[in-house]
Amino acid sequence: MDRRKLLTRVFEPHPASPGATRYTNAVLRTQDNKEVRFYDDLIRGRQVVINFFYADCKGACPAVTQKLKRIYNQLRDRMGNDLFFYSISLKPRDDTPAAMKRYAQMNKGDEPGWLFLTGDPYDIETIRFRLFGMGHPGFDLDETTHAGLLRIINDNRNSWGMAQAYASDQNILKRISWQDPQKSYGEMVRIYRDLQVKINEDVKKYGYRRDAWL
Amino acid sequence: MPKNKAKDRQKVGKKTEGTISRRTVLKIGAAAGAAGVLAPSILSPKEALGFQAITEPVLCTTPTNSPPHHPFVQDFAAPFPAEDHPLMPAPTESRNEAAGEAPRADHQRWAQFTPAQFTHELEAKPGLHTFHPDYSPTYIWGFNGLYPGPQMLQRYGKSTIVRFRNSLPLTTTTFGRNEMTIHLHNGHHGSESDGFAGDFFSTGFYKDHLYPNIYAGLDSFGGIGDHNEKMGTFWYHDHRAEFTAPNNQMGLNGQFIVYDETDPGHEHPSVDSLQLPGYYGITDFPIILNDKKFCPTANGRTEMVNAVAGGDKWIVNGMIQPKLTVRRRKYRFRILNTGPTKVWTLSLVKPDGSVGTMTCIATDANFLEHPLRINDTDGAGNSNATTAPIVPGGLKVAVAERYDIVIDFTEFPAGSKLYLKEAAQQFVGLPSPDPLPAGLDIRNVLMQFSVVNREPWFPVDTPAIPATLCTYPSIPDPVDNFFEWQFIRDPAVTCPAGTHLDPPRMFRIRRPTLGDTLGCVFDADRPAHAILRGTSEEWLINNMVAGSAWAHPVHIHFEEFRTIERLVNGVVVGRLNDPNLPIAPLFSGRKDVNFVEAGQGARIRMRFRDYNGAYLIHCHNMAHEDAFMMVRWDICPDQASLDACNAILQVCQEVQQCVPD
User: Is B634 within 8 Å of chain A by CB?
Assistant: First the structure.
């Protein structure tokens, strides 16, 4: 893909995007103590991957952050251009921007396109429900049930996907790619041409299409 | 005849002017007898849609109810048969990149089954469909712009190539996703034609599927396979990973019938014919079930609400509470639940309010060896429930299940009205035009049967349903391999205070055979299980979420199975051919969807033959399959490729534990 073209590409929100009414425009703080509005500054027109964590979490969170770091490295070209990671604190009372900064640096996540966000507890709970709510109180009210999930949003396509943070790297990469911006027919022709070469190699080697290239 | 018939017709004519002429055409066809309906379509899909501009819908905030509707004003009709259509450019064994075909492996057994006797083109694109004359047109996605999709009428031994073309809009305001991969449920064909969930393709491309229309068992039986493997009622639908429920709710599905000499699509006494009611659209109708919720009519449209599941209108063949005029004879209905999530419990209500008899002749496209009467008097055999107490009289139809039933209207005098009842209630909002039988609520009514005497030109009744409909193929014994699949949302660990479960509870498929502690989620690139072609396996399908409301209609692509044991919480409650512990009769035949409610399990046996490639096992509750409850399994052509496949098996062995908050 032409990187220059990608960098200059402007992504507009989808005409049917629910916008701030769904995502809220709650004001959050980044690890650099910068104020951002959730929809207008973070989601509008963008492809984003969102997870919830908290800084002193011993189990899931560091593992998920490590995993996101590996994904980040694979997608480094796109990060901060048309793809963003947002890790939002589940314990905003404890997690100050400074604590988020320490956590980000400790996990080597303090990089362009990856924000560690904290804010008002009520706002964050609202956002969590809006993003991960299953309409199942027993599931939703337990905040930890959302710690192992990645919500993948593309506001430009108005589409939502999800990945499990515990799935393999290639599975998560694939699911992120499933929410990529709408590609032109010409781009798809090129992507499909590469894919066909792999399929043919596979059939030659294994007698059937085995996949597993990622 | 109902006295307000003429009025209804006028209403139908006025409201649907220029929009659903195909239905009008079908009505004319039905009135004119068999010839009219069996003739190929006269109108092109474009003409049938009346050249209306198909603009994207303006979605509403979900209302409390859909708009009300008048019951029994629409004439129930079968979807129009698909036209045989020459394909330009001609289909090729390898992908035709220049013409815009999506990537795929070469077609397997191409030389054996081409040139195909039939070719069809099904183009997925936006359309307008009027679900009820009280409603304005609804924006849908359908094959050739139609919902339900064109009915495919096929024949064993005559191969077909279907060109699925994606002409969905580049951008949409609906919940649909403009990428698709079309699965023929449950065809016996190569993986490249199977609509594997990860093989979806974009707008502007097409993919040719080769459906050889053969019986399973090509490798060992030769010819067109083992005729005992005959199936009848298939369906085709979108299988796009993560978006199967939305795309099916948009309308991307249709039914697919394959006839053979036992079930020839007519009622003449031909050689080997069972002489079941069999004139499509005359005495043999699909009942394609779906539930939807609608916005108030605005701007000349009645749009679906922006939510995939949880409808309050019961949709039958794209209609709401239609009426069917039936003659005093037998009719066949091919019930299909297209989901996305609802389980239907159907029964026939007679004019006096008592439960009528539906004779089940086929489960999931496979004839039962002996027809089975479903009513409230014929014992436990009348239900497919396995939990106590068995509720008599209901035919449970989980998502993707098909049940072919025969209803005999001979005993009812002309003028009688019978009703197909669903256990749950929809929103109607207006009273029934006809007095209903005692105890029947209009909200439970799916459709009305209005009995008239047979006119001289209408086909005479078929003979009694034969006592034996088929011979089952042998069940593999012994099997080459055993495998267990557990459908879980668990383990249900209660963590002590100050700790929480990590990773959290989610839908997964666990493989105890491989020592999984947790379970797998869908991974398009890695198989969860690999099978050597030509071998047989016994699978234990287990719904491990006991004591809950989680029910999973587990579907296995490609091959039919026989259930040899049903279990509840690990205890065998039914065993095939065991008079002391009989298996529920509706589970005793061949099936491809195994409905396991909370705590239930099934031990099944099947063979894996004739083709190689990636197939799927998944929960067919489309919300569950979109939420990862699906895994891939592969058929490998030889030992070397099996070893290579086993080397890349999906790894799903994390430990779930309580960790400090």
Answer: yes
Across-strand partners of B333?
Answer: B285, B405
CB neighbours of B50 closer than 8 A, spacing ≥ 6? Answer: B17, B18, B19, B21
Q: How many CB atoms lie within 10 A of CB A190?
A: 12
3-class DSSP string for A135-185? CCHHHHCCHHHHCCEEEEEECCCCEEEEEECCCCHHHHHHHHHCCCCCCCH
For residue A17, give how far its alpha carbon lies from the nearest alpha carbon of chain B (Å).
8
Q: CB of B171 within 8 Å of any CB in chain A?
A: yes
The answer, for B661 touching chain A at a CB cutoff of 8 Å, is yes
Mapped onto helix, strand or coil, the DSSP state of residue B545 is coil
Query: Which residues, in sequence order, are bridge partners of residue B614?
Result: B634
Query: Which chain A residues are closer than 8 Å to B524 by Cβ?
Result: 174, 211
Distance from CA of B659 to the nearest CA of A (A): 6
Query: B161 forms bridges with which residues in the sheet?
Result: B119, B210
CB contact under 8 A, B242 and A164: no
In the beta sheet, which residues pair with residue A53? A89
Question: In this structure, how many other beta carbons lie within 10 angstroms of the beta carbon of residue A72?
Answer: 21
Structure tokens at B576: 């095939």
Mutation site for A-interface testing, chosen from B502, B533, B628, B645 by largest number of A Cβ within 10 Å: B502
- CA triple A12-A13-A14, angle to 5 deg: 115
**A208 vs B contacts (CB less than 8 Å):** 105, 191, 612-614, 634-637, 641
Q: Are B552 and B619 in contact (CB under 8 A)?
A: yes
**Both structure tokens of B381:** 């055999």
Q: Which helix (H) or strand (E) holds B122?
A: strand B118-129
Global pTM value:
0.89
DSSP state of B245: H
Burial B127-157 (b: 16+ CB within 10 A, else e): bbbbbbbbbbbbbbbbbbbbbbbbbbbbbbb
Q: 3-state DSSP call for residue A8?
A: helix
Cβ distance of B503 and A157 shorter than 8 Å: no
> Helices A60-74 and A169-177, interaxial angle, to 10°?
60
Contact (CB, 8 A) for B295 and B303: yes
pLDDT in tens, A116-142: 999 999 999 888 888 876 555 455 455
Contacts of B177 in chain A (CB under 8 A): 159
- Summarize the confidence of residues B86-100 as an average pLDDT: 96
Per the prediction, chain A carries an average pLDDT of 86
pLDDT tens digit string along B139-197?
999 999 999 999 999 999 999 999 999 999 988 888 899 999 999 999 999 999 999 99
| Alpha carbon distance B68, B311 (integer Å) | 13
CA-CA distance, B523 to B630, in Å (whole number)?
8
Q: From the CA of B308, how many Å to the nearest CA of chain A? A: 13
CA distance A41 to A37: 5
Which residues from B are below 8 Å from A199, CB to CB?
103-105
CB B589 within 8 A of CB B472: yes
Percent of chain B with pLDDT over 90: 71
- Give the Cα separation of B152 and B149 in Å (integer): 9
CA distance B647 to B641: 10
